[in-house]
Amino acid sequence: MEVFKIKTKIKKNHKIEIENLPFSNGEEVEVQITSGSKVENKEYNLRGTLLKYDDPFKPVAEDDWEVLK
Questions:
Q1: How far apart (Å, rounded) are the C-alpha atoms in residues 37 and 9?
Q2: Domain hosting residue 19, numbered range
Q3: Going by C-beta distance under 8 Å and a sequence separation of 6 or more, which residues neighbour residue 8?
Q4: Which pLDDT value is given to residue 26?
Q5: Cα(63)–Cα(61) distance, rounded to whole angstroms?
Q6: pLDDT for the residue 25
Q7: How high is the pLDDT of residue 69?
Q8: Cα angle, residue 12 at apex, residues 10 and 15 outer, rounded to 5°
Q9: Which whole-number Å values give the CA distances from 3 to 20, 29, 54, in the listed order?
Q10: How would DSSP label each residue in 36-56?
Q11: Within a domain: residue 54?
Q12: Helix, strand, coil shares of the chain as percentages rounded to 5?
């Protein structure tokens, strides 16, 4: 598989135009889009952050259970 890199800018209507591609009509191609800026995924905003558990086996909210008193 050959790779062709072409830079373009996003238009106002959120579309891109790529002209003069070196392929034949009807030829199947795969398109991959990358951006120079980091796109944040707000759904997973803690992904990649450092987590630290001081005592992972310590009971949580043990004082809130009346049955244990």
A1: 13
A2: 1-33
A3: 16, 17, 18
A4: 93
A5: 5
A6: 92
A7: 65
A8: 50
A9: 15, 10, 48
A10: SSPPP-GGGTTTT-----SST
A11: no
A12: 15, 0, 85
In a domain, 23, yes or no: yes
Q: Is the pTM of this model over 0.90?
A: no
Q: How far apart are CA 31 and CA 53, in angstroms?
A: 42
Residue 3: inside a domain: yes
- Predicted pLDDT at 46: 78
- 19, part of any domain: yes
Q: Do 29 and 23 meet the contact criterion of CB atoms below 8 Å apart?
A: yes
Residue with the larger pLDDT of the pair 15 and 66: 15
Q: In one letter, which amino acid is 61? A: A
Q: Read off the pLDDT of residues 8-49 as tens digits, 9 standing for 90 and up.
A: 888 889 899 888 888 899 999 898 888 776 666 667 777 778
